Amino acid sequence: NEMYAKDISRKVRSTKKLLAQEGKFANSRAPYGYRKSKEDKHKLIIDENVSRIVEYIFEKYLEGNTGRAIADNLNRKKVPTPNNYYYQSMNKPNPYIRDKNQWSSGTIINIIKNPVYYGAIANCKRKVKSFKNKDIVYLPKEQWVVVENMHQPIITKEQWETAQKINVNNKHEGLKRRCNGEMNIFSGLLKCADCGANMIFNTKHYKSYTKEYYRCSTYMNKGKTACTHHSIDYNIVYQAVMDDIRKYAVLSEKDEDKLIDMLLEIQADFQSKNISKYEENIRKTKNRIREIEGLIQSSFEEKISGNISDMIFRCVSEKYEKEYEEQRKKLSYLETEYESCRSAKNDISGWLKKVKLCCETNNLTRELLVSLIDHIDISEAHEENGEKSFDISITYTFGQQNAEGKTYALMA
User: Fold this and answer.
1) Given 146, 174, 191, 325, which residue has the most CB atoms within 10 angstroms?
2) The pTM is what?
């Protein structure tokens, strides 16, 4: 089995490398704006039904419009997303429920970055580590195999290159920093309470001051039809977290042993539920991997016996190999999370020491937050007793939510 897998892996790699060097399109699905030629599946031809949309996207982007603004315009015009258009053209329902026919800024930028639109084919963008380790490694652009003038372009190369320069200037690398140069300590911790997406840090400059706040990334990417903005001031989040951490310090002062016993009980229950969830997902994923291995083996035997052609075998094996890689990656992630969950025995005493340190210094740091908090859910603002308030639910690393209460009034 190992020799067979190694041989198949080698042949697949060499075939893909050859196709890449020849500038042939090797993916199962044509990029938006193109379709595969009926005569040659490795050749792309312009899809006249939607190529104008691609032209529109580049035109608006070069005029200075953001990906978000372009996506909003397409949504207002009720233009089907690439996913929806693809499945509509096949007379099939779109299986990606989250799509909801909403263009996002991410979709726009992916189109902007793709060299296929000026007539080039870019292959070898990623690879798997080995036939034993199916983890996907994304390669830097310098290692891509790009062959130009392979099909009719929708835009010029000059337009594409200009768009790349604009995109680089618009891109922010790493953690966004605050206006005073300090790190955004809540990066990756804040979640939208309604859709579960990350909250994104933003700044808005006024004459006399600068506003620092967070917004739901789903709202920012897909607009108000997908989610609401959940806009909340940085200082409100900071104060809410600091106040809640102080409550644990107060409880610890009253009866630390009792608090530790309570937290250990919560931790054990939280851990047990997570372990069961991971075990079930791992079992299902392993079963599917075994099914795919059996299907690949059967296809190989059918090819050897002459029951199917080389072309059909390649099509079938490509389909199964793609899913096999996805399932292996999923399994690797689940097993890592499972082991982490099973071995997690938070030092509650150590956790309380960090809580006390926060209170003593009256300061939250990135390091302390990551060690104390798993995530923070932010609700949309609502009226309470005549004030604009937010529900802020803090889930700590051992599973406990806010010590008591979770509604915070909007501060001026």
Assistant:
1) 191
2) 0.47
3-state secondary structure of 317: helix
- Residues 152, 19 within the same domain: yes
- DSSP category for residue 115: G
Report how far residue 13's alpha carbon sits from residue 198's, in angstroms, rounded to the nearest whole number: 37
CA dist 53 and 74 (Å) reads 9
pLDDT tens-digit readout, 45-75: 999 999 999 999 998 887 767 788 899 999 9
d(CA 330, CA 384): 43
Residue 230 lies in a domain: no
β pairing state of 373-378 and 190-192: parallel
**Measured between alpha carbons, how far is residue 225 from residues 51, 228, 230, 381 in Å?**
26, 8, 13, 17
Q: Do 131 and 240 share a domain, yes or no?
A: no
351 and 276 together in one domain: yes
Residue 220 lies in a domain: no
- In degrees and rounded to multiples of 5, residue 378 shows phi and psi of -115, 125
* 177 secondary structure, DSSP code: B
- Distance between CA atoms of 63 and 57, rounded to whole angstroms? 10
Q: Which tens digits make up the pLDDT trace of 336-350?
A: 778 767 765 556 777
Give one DSSP letter per residue of 128-146, joined into a string. Answer: ES-SS---EEEPPGGG-EE
What total of structural domains would you count in the chain? 2
